[in-house]
Specification:
The protein is built from 21 helices and 26 strands. With 639 residues, the protein is α+β, with helices and mostly antiparallel strands. It folds into four domains: 313 residues, FAD/NAD(P)-binding domain (3-Layer(bba) Sandwich), CATH 3.50.50; 121 residues, Elongation Factor Tu (Ef-tu), domain 3 (Beta Barrel); 77 residues, no CATH class; 63 residues, GidA associated domain, C-terminal subdomain (DNA polymerase, domain 1, Orthogonal Bundle), CATH 1.10.150.570.
Length: 639
């Protein structure tokens, strides 16, 4: 085996897949990327909810796709129910989502990875991160891997660590504890020790998953039906045109048979069973000490926190056309198996249901993300990048977004060497930028989850305009030049730009009564469908994304102009750099709370500094003066 690569990616989850894909897109050289997975057959596995997208998460998937990523393609090829959430509200908060076939999803993922000559899949466990120290500090050299009973060393100038829940993963079900990062799989222990020895501050977080039921044991037909959209919208621009890589193709949409889900719920009796067994619940006995996700709590946590509630909704979601498993969305739990049996049988339609896999919680190591830059590169080891749950996030989409950024930057560093400066998005450019900025300016006390409310520029960062915003950036960064899919993506954007330009012109010219269509759009009841009906004969039968962009851009135009003006006014502060040599401890005139925050997070810009907890606008004004003095003192010292 060739043991030298340009980029090594550790972990084959959603972050690892996207990191390897982005690096391959940028490098374009055979066997330049190593993708290391404990079990290669598990690459791309959906550990928990078999779904992609949702509120704010759908925007992330659209942005990943616009940047040449792969998650949207896989979701389109394996989705069994597509639905845009939040359509009763404005398009800025619409959330594309699909229920995925969780057997087809990893199969398609592995097939796509297998058709990238740039990516070499290696099965094994990383035991250590290898580094060297020179005049510029620590530099990554590669990794030591235990594979098939032997240890080998792989070298690379860039290493991306995407270990998910596997770093010292410990699963809990009642009093039972099992080493592992996912049901039936081992944990990774050596890499935690290696990161600790490198001086990284580690933390511990928790996540959980619900039980799965056998569909034939559910009284399926009596339950309320949850259907997908009649006219489903794909995640990827390529899917509208049709795409193929090797034997994997998506030449129609939806590609596979669509399904319906069902609704059930817990009840008072189920809640009483839970309360009676809290002394057996690991998160209440002290067995689990780490913090879980606030916005996706376990059912025992819900019952305690919302004691006044008599029921909680549960969505029953079939996991695959190839299995009988049903995912119980809404009742993640680490209660003992016998208690889970009792809870399930209290749910309508599930009186005779059989659990085929019990729910469990998993604790895992993470690295406090104030130790990385918005590029994903660590502050203390050049060439070492982190992405995904290792940075304290929760969710496939958040992980994949970080993977894309880390993989891109890892490839840039590998090829540019000392000239590498790194790439990251601003908060006004992408939800990905919001995500990365939040990670480096806040210490997550619980797994971080993306929400539309976190994006102050969400009118601009809509799901429908992701290709307009980001695909030109992807081309500039070299992410589209090395593949047929990249060239196809650029061609589709050029075509889309022409259609939008023509559409805007027609909206200004065409009239509906006394008003132009551009004026009609401002009427509250004038919908996207009204615009499509009025323009269908002149603009043709365009896909939904075109109509949504035409409608939203015009309706939000005054607000977008105001927001763009605010972004322009704040640009100086946002992008004004802070020197990395500053010792904030010497600024005695600054409040101690602000000094401590600045020293811990070491922001790279005044904009980042302004968002740190404990830093006020007055502190930023003072900081500007103190930095000027420090620079003057340094120049004097040099002279």
């Amino acid at each position: 085996m060739d043991t030298h690569f340009e980029v090594i990616v550790v972990g084959g989850g959603h972050a690892g897949v996207e990191a390897a894909w982005a690096a391959a897109n940028r490098l374009g050289t055979p066997d330049s990327v190593a993708l290391i997975s404990i079990d290669a057959s598990k690459i791309g596995v959906m550990s928990c909810n078999p779904a992609i997208g949702g509120l704010a998460k759908g925007q992330l998937v659209r942005e990943i796709d616009a940047m040449g990523g792969v998650m949207g393609l896989i979701a389109d090829a394996t989705g069994i129910q597509f639905k845009v959430l939040n359509t009763s509200k404005g398009s800025a908060v619409h959330g594309p989502r699909c229920q995925s076939d969780n057997i087809a999803y990893p199969r398609v993922t592995q097939a796509l990875i297998g058709h990238r000559p740039e990516i070499k899949v290696i099965e094994g466990t990383v035991e250590a991160i290898l580094t060297t120290t020179n005049a510029d500090g620590q530099q990554v050299q590669g990794v030591r891997v235990s594979t098939h009973g032997q240890e080998i060393e792989l070298s690379a100038p860039s290493v991306v660590v995407t270990t998910g829940t596997f770093m010292r993963g410990l699963m809990h079900m009642g009093a039972q504890q099992t080493q592992g990062g996912r049901f039936g799989e081992q944990s990774a222990t050596g890499i935690s020790k290696s990161l600790d020895e490198l001086g990284f501050e580690l933390g511990r977080l928790k996540t959980g998953t619900p039980p799965r039921l056998a569909i034939e044991t559910i009284d399926w037909d009596i339950l309320p039906v949850e259907v997908g959209d009649d006219d489903p919208i794909p995640f990827s621009e390529l899917t509208v045109d049709g795409w193929q890589l090797g034997e994997v193709r998506c030449d129609r949409f939806p590609l596979i048979e669509q399904i319906t889900c069902r609704q059930s719920s817990t009840n008072i009796q189920a809640h009483e069973i839970i309360r009676a067994n809290l002394d057996r619940a690991p998160m209440f006995t002290g067995q689990i000490e780490s913090q879980g996700p606030r916005y996706c709590p376990s059912i025992e946590d819900k019952v305690v926190r919302f004691a006044q509630r008599e029921s909680h909704g549960v969505f029953l979601e079939p996991e695959s056309h190839e299995s009988n498993w049903v995912y119980c969305n809404g009742i993640a739990t680490s209660l003992p198996s016998d208690v889970q049996d009792q809870i399930i049988r209290q749910m309508p339609g599930c009186e005779q249901a059989k659990i085929v896999q019990y729910g469990y919680a998993v604790e895992y190591d993470m690295v406090r993300p104030h130790q990385i830059y918005t590029t994903g590169q660590t502050r203390t080891v050049r060439g070492l990048f982190f992405a995904g749950q290792i940075n304290g996030t929760s969710g496939y989409e958040e992980a994949a977004a970080q993977g894309l950024i880390a993989g891109l930057n890892a490839a840039m560093l590998a090829t540019q060497g000392p000239a590498y400066e790194g790439f990251s998005f601003g908060r006004d450019q992408a939800y990905i930028g919001v995500l990365m900025d939040d990670l480096v300016t806040k210490t997550p006390r619980e797994p971080y989850r993306m929400f539309t409310s976190r994006a102050e520029h969400r009118l601009i960062l809509r799901a429908d305009n992701a290709p307009d915003r980001l695909t030109p950036i992807a081309k500039e960064l070299g992410l589209l030049e090395t593949t047929k899919l990249g060239h196809q993506r650029w061609g589709l954007l050029e075509k889309r730009k022409g259609i939008l330009e023509r559409g805007r012109q027609l909206m200004d010219e065409m009239r509906d009564g006394e008003k132009t269509l551009s004026q009609k759009v401002f009427e509250p009841d004038y919908s996207m469908d009204d615009l499509r009906s009025a323009m269908r004969k002149t603009l043709g039968g365009q896909e939904v994304g075109i109509w949504r962009t035409l409608h939203s851009d015009k309706r939000y135009e005054p607000y977008i102009e105001r927001q763009l003006g605010q972004i322009k006014r704040n640009a100086d502060l946002e992008h004004r750099p802070l020197p990395d040599w500053i010792d904030y401890g010497i600024f005695d005139s600054m409040r101690s709370e602000a000094r401590i925050a600045l020293e811990k997070f070491k922001p790279t810009t005044f904009g980042q500094a302004s968002r740190l907890e404990g830093v006020t606008p007055a502190d930023i004004t003072l900081l500007s003066v103190l930095i000027k003095r420090a620079r003057a003192d340094k120049r004097g010292a040099i002279k």
